[in-house]
Write a structure and sequence with these properties.
Layout (H helix, E strand, L loop, with lengths): L20 H7 L5 E4 L6 H8 L4 E6 L2 H10 L7 E5 L16 E7 L4 H5 L25 H7 L2 H12 L4 H12 L7 H12 L5 H16 L1 H13 L2 E11 L2 H14 L20 E3 L9 H6 L7 E7 L2
Parallel strand pairs: 1-2, 1-4, 2-3, 4-5
Antiparallel strand pairs: 5-7, 6-7
Helix pairs in contact: 1-2, 6-7, 6-9, 7-8, 10-11
């Protein structure tokens, strides 16, 4: 895969630097119509339109992000269509009825603008509200999740989404503290993390735990599992599905799905007769995940954890 020469930073805006944009453009080269399932700051949509894609249909569950990005891309006329919705439920988005695409892109996680907006509560900056909802369709916010979730489920969230070895201790600490004082701001969760994990806890620990809570609030991993096959079925023959993940759980789901689709037989290894589909649905375009280079990570530190994978759909 060849990156676009001299493209580093070319599609950045004041608040958003699209991660691995040149690599995405290369993977989706030649596509006439692309679905950008996570519009965010609009950087990837700009890159695709400027590289020659005929039309980009973009969706986002965050009304504020959708409005700002749509204003940024208004100059592209009917080559750009912005629609509010959750990529995990394309069947609920009227604009996608019977739509087919030559390329689909998901840039998972939270956008730079969302992280930097303290009122959204995604960061552990002092005094930030414990919200973390990506859109109006979220069932709960972070404060409610921390107040009402049972200890065992909290431990599972921290263990599975944050790889936290002391997940049980942290869950107990949260339950103990919420008995006397409600969790309302980032400080409450930070103090609980310090209380459970020790005074030497650093920013990396806070980032992991806050990310785990955000994933739980927005049901991100289950949404991704649900979305992948639903979106794959909207690809035209030869269409490319590209996903950028920032969390090991997300990347594992994408890797396993793409590998399964590119495998002829998915029956259990010891089963004597094949009873599955018996043929691959398409092919892997990335045997290993694509990561950002040194130049990009210097320009955009948030690109360090990005992992890009791609799949080409068959006939």
């Amino acid at each position: 895969m060849t990156a676009v020469a001299g493209s580093a930073g070319r599609w950045d805006s004041e608040y958003h630097a699209p991660v691995l944009a040149a690599e995405v453009v290369s993977l989706l080269a030649g596509a006439r119509r692309v679905l950008d399932g996570t519009l965010g700051g609009g950087g990837h949509s700009v890159a695709l339109l400027e590289s020659g894609v005929g039309q980009v249909v973009a969706i986002d569950r965050d009304p504020a992000a959708l409005r700002i990005a749509a204003e940024r891309l208004s100059g592209y006329g009917d080559r750009f269509v912005a629609v509010e919705g959750n990529y995990a439920h394309p069947e609920r988005i009227a604009a996608l009825d019977d739509a087919r695409f030559d390329g689909i892109l998901l840039d998972l996680g939270v956008s730079s603008r969302q992280l930097d907006d303290e009122s959204r509560g995604f960061s552990f900056r002092p005094g930030a509200p414990l919200d973390m909802r990506m859109g109006n369709d979220a069932d709960t916010d972070a404060a409610t999740l921390l107040a009402e979730t049972r200890e065992a489920e909290l431990a599972r969230i921290f263990r599975e989404y944050a790889d936290e070895p002391k997940a049980g201790r942290l869950a107990r600490e949260i339950v103990r503290r919420r008995g006397t004082r409600a969790f309302a701001t980032s400080d409450d969760l930070v103090n609980a993390i310090r209380g459970a994990l020790g005074a030497r806890t650093d920013a990396g620990d806070f980032a992991r735990i806050f990310q785990a809570v955000r994933i739980a609030v927005n049901d991100e991993l289950r949404d991704l599992e649900r979305a992948l096959p639903a979106l794959r079925d909207r690809l035209t023959p030869g269409g490319v599905f590209a996903v950028i993940a920032y969390h090991s759980g997300e990347d594992r789901i994408v890797k396993n799905a793409f590998r399964d689709w590119a495998t002829a037989c998915v029956c259990p290894p010891r089963q004597p007769i094949c009873t599955c589909r018996g043929k691959a649905l398409g092919q892997l375009l990335t045997r290993k995940s694509v990561v950002a280079g040194d130049e990009e990570t210097r320009r955009n530190p948030r690109a360090r954890s990005a992992r890009l994978r791609a799949y080409r759909h068959g006939d």
